[in-house]
Amino acid sequence: MGHAINVIFGIAIAIIVYLVIILGIKAFYPEPEYLDFCEEYRDVIRPLAIEECEGNLTVQECRTLAREKEIDNRDNCHKPYQKARESYNRNLFLITMIIGLILIVTSLFTLGMINISSGLIMASVVLIVYGFIRGWDSANDILKFVFALADAVIIIAFAVMLNKRKK
What we know:
Order of helices and strands: HHHHH
Structural class: mainly alpha
Strand content: under 5%
């Protein structure tokens, strides 16, 4: 019975700690919004009405002009948005990696309370995976390797310490 309660508390701690961190990041470091860069969002290019065309343009020329104008408008707002999003994802990767490593190290100091320690380690692993997913295309491969190596070394060291403690 006591073991089951420890497992339940460990899972609950993992979920809550993860949620608190993700919500904290979203609250204090908001993600760039598309509408901050572009006036409106359209999946479909709206053809100009014939009345909107200037001069003696044919319907086809009018539509071509509208398409070119819409593509220019999209490029002018979409590229800065993509750049801001890439920067955000890279920074989010760094933030989650650092917090994940802090959680792993903190879990080493709570080995006496196995449910807290296991909850912190589970939250850190999920947070680290989330960071890798979000920053995969935005972060430098060497940086990703360094953090993955640090995470692996610390988690393996944690497991070794735990196994030695049980013996």
